[in-house]
Amino acid sequence: MKKTITTLCLISLLVSCKPETKEKLNDAKEAVGVEIKETIDSAKIKAETTLDSTKTKIETKIETKMDTIVSKGAQKVEEAAQKVKKSIKNNN
Description:
Blueprint: H1 2-91
């Protein structure tokens, strides 16, 4: 008889704890979900910042290279123009 009453008490205790346990599990799921979302958002922001920084560095390097190329090209054109002028003067 004592075993039956003890078993019934344990069963009633387990049944009464179920809603609280479910609530705790739901709270824990929500907390984990929020934490995962925040981590993903943080990683996304870091990735975007890194990409923007890299893009800016690449654009700066390209602009510098283009300026150098244009400058060298202009210098070559100027040298060629001087040679043509000398050639015209010498022929006249």
